[in-house]
Amino acid sequence: MTKNILEGQYYKFKIRAKNIWGWGEFSPIVTIRASTFPSAVTPITTSYDDVTGGVKISWAQTKNNGDPITDYKIEIFSYDSLSWNEEPKNCNGSDKLIVSRRECIIPVLELYKSPFKLTFNQFIKVRILAINVIGSGNYGENSQALSDTRLKSTALNMWSPYRGEATSVNQIEVKWNQLLPPDNGNSPVLSYNLVWDANTGECDKNLIGFEIPYLGLSYIVT
Length: 222
Fold this sequence. Notes:
This protein has two helices and 15 strands. By secondary structure, it is mostly beta strands. The protein has two domains: 44-131, no CATH class; 155-222. A hairpin with a 6-residue loop joins strand 5 and strand 6 (55-59). The longest helix has 6 residues, at 96-101.
C-alpha cells in the first residue's frame, strides 16, 4: 500500500519482530530518500565553438529522479579502437562547472591524439551518462549518432619558406606558398607566423603573424 510517497523526499523507517513471547525492540532508524539513478541524457549536440574553434559538447538537462546529478561520464567514440573514451583534461564530467553548465569544449588537436585517433572529416560521436548518489543512468537512444559534426583540422604543416627575388646583401626576402584546401583544414587561414633565428642560431624569434595577423605571402627582413 502506498502512502503518498513524494519524489526526493526523505522518509524514516524502523522495524521490529514478534514471536510467541511478544514484540522485540525496534531497530535503529534508517532514512531513505525516494529516488533512483538519473534518466538517460538526451539530446546531446556537438558543434564548433565560435571563439576557440574547439569541439563543443552540450547536453540537455535530464531528470535526476529525486537525487541531484553530481557527475557526468562523457565519452567519445574511437573508430581506431572501436571503443568509447573520456577526455578528462578538457571534458571532465566531475568538474562542477561542467556539471552546472552541461557543456565542455575540446581542442580539435586532442581528438587526433590517442586514445581517440580521429581522422579528418569523421563524425564526432559522443555519449553521456548522468550520475547521482544512487548510481549512473542509462545511455540515451540517440547518444551515439548525434549530429552532422565532422572533425575539422588545424592548418597542416607548410612547405618550407624560400628565398625571394628581392634578397640582396643587406636584406632578405622570405616567401612562402599560400595554404589552400585541404591543407588549411578546409578553413580560411587567419594568419601566417614567420619565425627566424635573429642571428642566434635558434630559430625561435617571432617576426610577424603571431600577435598581429599577417596574410601576406612574403616578408622582407632588413
